[in-house]
Amino acid sequence: MVSIARAHPNIALVKYWGKADDELIIPVAGSMSMTLDKFATTTTVELTASADSFELNGSRADAKATGRTTVFLDLVRRLAADAGLETATASAKVTSVNEGPTAAGMASSASGFAALAVAAADAYGLKLSTKDLSRLARRGSGSASRSLIDRFAVWHAGTSDETSFAEALAAPEMAMVSVTVNAKAKKVSSRDGMVATRETSPYYQAWIDVTHKTLDEMIAACAADDFTRVGEITETHAHRMHAVIQATEPPIRYLAPVSWQVFDEVAAMREDGLEAYATADAGPNVVIICRPDDAAAVAARVAAYGAVETFAPGPGAHLVDTA
Ligand code: DP6
After folding, report:
1. Between the CA of residue 290 and those of 178, 234, 270, 308, what are the distances in Å?
2. Do 136 and 195 belong to one domain?
3. Whether residue 21 is found in the same domain as residue 116
4. Where is the Diphosphomevalonate decarboxylase-like N-terminal domain (predicted)?
């Protein structure tokens, strides 16, 4: 019996950066994202009598990734024990394939833990709702909570394991154009960067306060189907996240000179009447949002800066039929 799940990365328009609880992965503020329709992770989980194992993209994963997988499987086994299932003591063989670049700021941990949550829950015999799968995926990587959700998701920060989960929200029609300026793994992980920001950035409290407000504004702009406002909020919030991160000691800087050139190019597009807005996660790659009909024109304008991909809103994490 094997369980196979497929999940896509998501890109946040309102960013998650900072934890109120490191162990439970409760964020300091809520966030909002679009799930992509490409760069999927497909994960197979098979229960076994031997030790846990984790293979990523055809090779045995390194000790760190394997350790994070085992810690996550322990959570699933705990849920199985609570449900009185015999599977609770079983180990698991996990095989995962990423179609996108791993750990380069294209949210591979989000699709990875979302796929693992769905496949492992099924393999261990748990029957979980989407909300409970989102809570489970969150324990692997915070942003993974949002990859459970079709199209657009809001992750409610919550104050406990029960209240911190993502759910769907309707948003204006849009496409995303990613510009991968550098596909190499990033220097400081989001996990470590968040701790450094909390410990040393003097702007951390301001960032938390503004993110609460920004999420409210984003939810209102989505309800009003106001693409322009959604775009403006997205670009401003990305700059604010990179500002709070840059104020750490020693400084962390995720954006490269070429990333700023892409931001400038997006501003130039707007001056030319091509409405687009840019954001970037914890790496140098830039993601542009635009109206679906403008995606080809936007992609053409940034093709010189790196590898370009165009995305539509995609599906939440789901089981793949093995019958
Ligand atoms: C910049 O979800 O990867 O992409 O919870 O520590 O695993 P952990 O962090 P992670 O952080 C994502 C940070 C971000 C912004 C976002 O996706 O909201």
Report:
1. 11, 11, 10, 14
2. no
3. yes
4. 7-166
Domain edge (last residue) among 154, 171, 188: 171
In 51-156, where do the E strands start and end? 53-56, 59-60, 91-98, 152-156
What is the Å distance from ligand 1's center to 11 Cα? 10
Ligand 1 site, residue 111, Cβ cutoff 6 A:
no
Helix (H) or strand (E) holding 35: strand 31-35
- 151-175 pLDDT, tens per residue? 999 999 999 999 999 999 999 999 9
CATH code of 115's domain: 3.30.230.10
| Three-class HEC string of 146-157 | HHHCCCEEEEEC
Probe ligand 1: pick from 147, 190, 194, max atoms within 8 Å of CB?
190
Q: Look up the ipTM and state it.
A: 0.99
| Buried/exposed code over 95-117 (b: 16+ C-beta within 10 A; e: otherwise) | bbebebbbbbbbbbbbbbbbbbb
Q: In the structure encoding, which two tokens stand for residue 73, read together? A: 């499987």
Is residue 123 packed enough to be buried (19+ CB in 10 Å), middle (13-18) or exposed (0-12)?
buried
Q: Which two tokens stand for residue 245?
A: 């991160």
For residue 105, the CA-to-ligand 1 centroid distance in Å is: 9
**What whole-number percentage of the chain has pLDDT above 70?**
96
pTM value > 0.80: yes
Q: Check pocket membership of 109 for ligand 1, CB cut-off 6 A.
A: yes
Q: Is 282 in the pocket of ligand 1 (CB under 6 A)?
A: yes
CB 69 within 8 A of CB 27: no
281-290 pLDDT tens trace? 999 999 999 9
